[in-house]
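Customer escalation, tier 2.

The customer says the design service returned an amino acid string that "doesn't look like it belongs to this structure." They asked us to rerun it and document both sides in this ticket. The original C-alpha coordinates are below, unchanged.
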Protein backbone atom coordinates (compact mmCIF):
# COMPACT_ATOMS: atom_id res chain seq x y z
CA UNK A 1 0.00 0.00 0.00
CA UNK A 2 2.85 2.41 0.81
CA UNK A 3 4.56 1.78 -2.50
CA UNK A 4 1.40 2.65 -4.40
CA UNK A 5 1.06 5.95 -2.55
CA UNK A 6 4.71 6.89 -3.20
CA UNK A 7 4.46 5.91 -6.87
CA UNK A 8 1.30 7.98 -7.28
CA UNK A 9 2.93 10.98 -5.67
CA UNK A 10 6.01 10.75 -7.92
CA UNK A 11 3.76 10.28 -10.94
CA UNK A 12 1.77 13.42 -10.09
CA UNK A 13 4.96 15.43 -9.53
CA UNK A 14 6.34 14.28 -12.88
CA UNK A 15 3.17 15.38 -14.68
CA UNK A 16 3.17 18.73 -12.87
CA UNK A 17 6.76 19.43 -13.96
CA UNK A 18 5.96 18.42 -17.52
CA UNK A 19 2.85 20.61 -17.54
CA UNK A 20 4.87 23.57 -16.19
CA UNK A 21 7.51 23.01 -18.87
CA UNK A 22 4.82 22.83 -21.53
CA UNK A 23 3.24 26.07 -20.30
CA UNK A 24 6.67 27.78 -20.27
CA UNK A 25 7.39 26.53 -23.81
CA UNK A 26 4.02 27.80 -25.07
CA UNK A 27 4.64 31.19 -23.39
CA UNK A 28 8.16 31.41 -24.89
CA UNK A 29 6.82 30.49 -28.33
CA UNK A 30 4.11 33.15 -28.06
CA UNK A 31 6.76 35.77 -27.17
CA UNK A 32 8.85 34.69 -30.15
CA UNK A 33 5.84 34.96 -32.47
CA UNK A 34 4.99 38.44 -31.12
CA UNK A 35 8.59 39.59 -31.57
CA UNK A 36 8.76 38.05 -35.03
CA UNK A 37 5.73 39.96 -36.25
CA UNK A 38 6.44 43.17 -34.33
CA UNK A 39 10.14 43.61 -35.17
CA UNK A 40 9.49 46.84 -37.09
CA UNK A 41 7.91 48.34 -33.94
CA UNK A 42 10.83 47.19 -31.78
CA UNK A 43 13.34 48.50 -34.33
CA UNK A 44 11.53 51.83 -34.68
CA UNK A 45 11.27 52.35 -30.91
CA UNK A 46 14.96 51.50 -30.54
CA UNK A 47 15.88 54.04 -33.23
CA UNK A 48 13.71 56.74 -31.61
CA UNK A 49 15.22 56.13 -28.18
CA UNK A 50 18.75 56.14 -29.64
CA UNK A 51 18.09 59.43 -31.45
CA UNK A 52 16.68 60.99 -28.27
CA UNK A 53 19.71 59.87 -26.26
CA UNK A 54 22.09 61.23 -28.92
CA UNK A 55 20.29 64.59 -29.06
CA UNK A 56 20.33 64.92 -25.27
CA UNK A 57 24.05 64.10 -25.12
CA UNK A 58 24.88 66.62 -27.87
CA UNK A 59 22.79 69.31 -26.15
CA UNK A 60 24.60 68.74 -22.87
CA UNK A 61 28.00 68.97 -24.55
CA UNK A 62 26.97 72.15 -26.35
CA UNK A 63 25.89 73.79 -23.08
CA UNK A 64 29.33 73.32 -21.56
CA UNK A 65 30.80 75.81 -24.03
CA UNK A 66 28.08 78.41 -23.39
CA UNK A 67 29.17 79.04 -19.79
CA UNK A 68 31.93 81.54 -20.63
CA UNK A 69 29.71 83.29 -23.16
CA UNK A 70 27.05 83.71 -20.45
CA UNK A 71 29.58 85.17 -18.02
CA UNK A 72 30.83 87.62 -20.64
CA UNK A 73 27.28 88.66 -21.56
CA UNK A 74 26.44 89.20 -17.88
CA UNK A 75 29.49 91.42 -17.41
CA UNK A 76 28.57 93.45 -20.49
CA UNK A 77 25.03 93.88 -19.17
CA UNK A 78 26.31 95.06 -15.78
CA UNK A 79 28.74 97.55 -17.27
CA UNK A 80 26.42 98.98 -19.94
CA UNK A 81 24.95 101.90 -17.98
CA UNK A 82 27.89 102.32 -15.64
CA UNK A 83 30.25 102.86 -18.59
CA UNK A 84 27.93 105.48 -20.05
CA UNK A 85 27.74 107.56 -16.89
CA UNK A 86 31.41 107.15 -16.09
CA UNK A 87 32.24 108.31 -19.61
CA UNK A 88 30.72 111.66 -18.63
CA UNK A 89 33.55 111.99 -16.13
CA UNK A 90 36.63 113.10 -18.03
CA UNK A 91 39.12 112.25 -15.31
CA UNK A 92 37.47 108.97 -14.26
CA UNK A 93 39.96 106.25 -13.66
CA UNK A 94 40.28 102.75 -12.41
CA UNK A 95 42.13 102.63 -9.10
CA UNK A 96 45.80 101.81 -9.56
CA UNK A 97 47.81 99.50 -7.39
CA UNK A 98 50.22 101.29 -5.14
CA UNK A 99 53.85 100.29 -4.81
CA UNK A 100 53.57 100.19 -1.05
CA UNK A 101 51.45 97.85 0.99
CA UNK A 102 48.24 98.91 2.64
CA UNK A 103 48.64 102.22 4.44
CA UNK A 104 46.92 103.07 7.68
CA UNK A 105 44.30 105.82 7.59
CA UNK A 106 45.44 109.08 9.20
CA UNK A 107 42.21 110.69 10.28
CA UNK A 108 39.26 108.32 10.08
CA UNK A 109 38.92 104.58 10.72
CA UNK A 110 42.12 104.25 12.72
CA UNK A 111 40.71 101.60 15.00
CA UNK A 112 38.34 99.86 12.66
CA UNK A 113 36.25 97.12 14.21
CA UNK A 114 34.04 94.40 12.86
CA UNK A 115 30.72 95.61 11.47
CA UNK A 116 28.93 92.26 11.82
CA UNK A 117 28.94 90.20 14.99
CA UNK A 118 28.60 86.86 13.22
CA UNK A 119 31.82 85.89 11.46
CA UNK A 120 30.84 84.22 8.19
CA UNK A 121 32.28 84.37 4.70
CA UNK A 122 29.33 86.42 3.41
CA UNK A 123 29.57 88.91 6.27
CA UNK A 124 33.33 89.19 5.76
CA UNK A 125 32.87 90.01 2.06
CA UNK A 126 30.21 92.61 2.87
CA UNK A 127 32.42 94.18 5.52
CA UNK A 128 35.41 94.43 3.19
CA UNK A 129 33.19 95.91 0.48
CA UNK A 130 31.72 98.57 2.79
CA UNK A 131 35.12 99.54 4.17
CA UNK A 132 36.72 99.76 0.72
CA UNK A 133 33.81 101.86 -0.60
CA UNK A 134 34.12 104.25 2.35
CA UNK A 135 37.91 104.55 2.22
CA UNK A 136 38.90 104.47 -1.46
CA UNK A 137 38.83 107.98 -2.98
CA UNK A 138 38.19 106.92 -6.60
CA UNK A 139 35.21 104.77 -5.66
CA UNK A 140 33.77 107.54 -3.48
CA UNK A 141 34.25 110.12 -6.25
CA UNK A 142 32.56 107.96 -8.89
CA UNK A 143 29.60 107.23 -6.65
CA UNK A 144 29.24 110.89 -5.61
CA UNK A 145 29.41 112.01 -9.25
CA UNK A 146 26.65 109.60 -10.20
CA UNK A 147 24.52 110.73 -7.26
CA UNK A 148 25.16 114.40 -8.19
CA UNK A 149 24.27 113.95 -11.86
CA UNK A 150 21.01 112.19 -11.11
CA UNK A 151 20.10 114.57 -8.30
CA UNK A 152 20.51 117.53 -10.66
CA UNK A 153 18.49 115.72 -13.34
CA UNK A 154 15.68 114.97 -10.89
CA UNK A 155 15.60 118.53 -9.51
CA UNK A 156 15.80 120.36 -12.84
CA UNK A 157 14.01 117.97 -15.20
CA UNK A 158 10.30 117.87 -15.91
CA UNK A 159 7.97 115.67 -13.86
CA UNK A 160 7.74 112.89 -16.45
CA UNK A 161 11.54 112.66 -16.57
CA UNK A 162 11.92 112.42 -12.78
CA UNK A 163 10.41 108.96 -12.47
CA UNK A 164 12.44 107.67 -15.41
CA UNK A 165 15.63 109.22 -14.04
CA UNK A 166 14.97 107.63 -10.65
CA UNK A 167 14.53 104.19 -12.24
CA UNK A 168 17.64 104.59 -14.41
CA UNK A 169 19.59 105.80 -11.37
CA UNK A 170 18.54 102.76 -9.33
CA UNK A 171 19.60 100.37 -12.10
CA UNK A 172 22.88 102.18 -12.90
CA UNK A 173 23.80 102.54 -9.22
CA UNK A 174 23.15 98.86 -8.61
CA UNK A 175 25.21 97.81 -11.64
CA UNK A 176 28.09 100.11 -10.62
CA UNK A 177 28.04 98.71 -7.09
CA UNK A 178 28.04 95.15 -8.44
CA UNK A 179 31.05 95.96 -10.63
CA UNK A 180 32.88 97.44 -7.64
CA UNK A 181 31.89 94.43 -5.53
CA UNK A 182 33.35 92.10 -8.17
CA UNK A 183 36.60 94.10 -8.11
CA UNK A 184 36.84 93.94 -4.34
Amino acid sequence: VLKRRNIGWQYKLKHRVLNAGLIFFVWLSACAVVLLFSWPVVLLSGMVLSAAALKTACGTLGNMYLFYEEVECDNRRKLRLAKFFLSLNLDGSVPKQGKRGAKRPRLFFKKSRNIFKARTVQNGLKEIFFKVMLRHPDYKRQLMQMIGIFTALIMVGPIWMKAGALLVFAFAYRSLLSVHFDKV
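Tier 2 assessment: The sequence is consistent with the input. Helices lie at 2-37, 39-87, 121-135, 137-156, 159-183. The mean pLDDT is 75. Sent an explanation to the customer and offered a walkthrough call.
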